[in-house]
Amino acid sequence: MTAARHRPQRSCVACRQVRAKSELVRVVRTPQGEVRLDATGKTAGRGAYLCPSRRCLEKAVKQGRLSRALASPIGPEVIEALRAALSEADGGAAAPGKRVANAGA
Ligand SMILES: [Zn+2]
After folding, report:
1. More confident residue, 5 or 33
2. Which residues contact 81 (CB under 8 A, 6 or more apart)?
3. Residues with CB under 5 A from ligand 1 (ion)
4. Is 64 part of any domain?
5. Is 71 exposed, middle or buried (0-12, 13-18, 19+ CB in 10 A)?
């Protein structure tokens, strides 16, 4: 038995940084054409990976990289869901002076 495990790597569609797949957020376009955040990383379909950071999300959306990677337009509700998910992951450290209020406190 070897201690080393295979760690799949993917690159962020926004900044192109290569990271362990487990450190990235996967967005998937399902065979039904639905685009959504794939929390499990196992949803069937075409996937695009992003750093868990709002900066990379905004860049990927603004520059059309996410829709290009998925070969599908990204609806505003999908972007909102991604923003919500990533603002949790961000922890606020990377976004000085900007706090996202928690809905339903
Ligand atoms: Zn990135």
Report:
1. 33
2. 36, 37
3. 12, 14-15, 51, 56
4. yes
5. exposed
What backbone phi and psi angles, to 5 degrees, belong to 64? 70, 20
Considering the domain boundaries, does residue 30 fall inside one?
A: yes
Measured CA to CA, the distance from residue 71 to residue 39 in angstroms comes to 20
Would 2 be classed as within a structural domain? no
d(CA 103, CA 12): 28
CA 61 / ligand 1 centre spacing (Å): 12
Record the pTM.
0.76
Residue 41 has pLDDT above 60, yes or no: yes
The CATH number that applies at residue 15 is 3.30.1230.10
40 found inside a domain: yes
Owning domain of residue 68: 9-90
Q: State in Å: Cα 105 to ligand 1 middle.
A: 30
pLDDT of residue 86 exceeding 90, the answer is no
Going from the Cα of 15 to the center of ligand 1, the distance in angstroms, rounded, reads: 4
Provide the number of structural domains found in the chain. 1
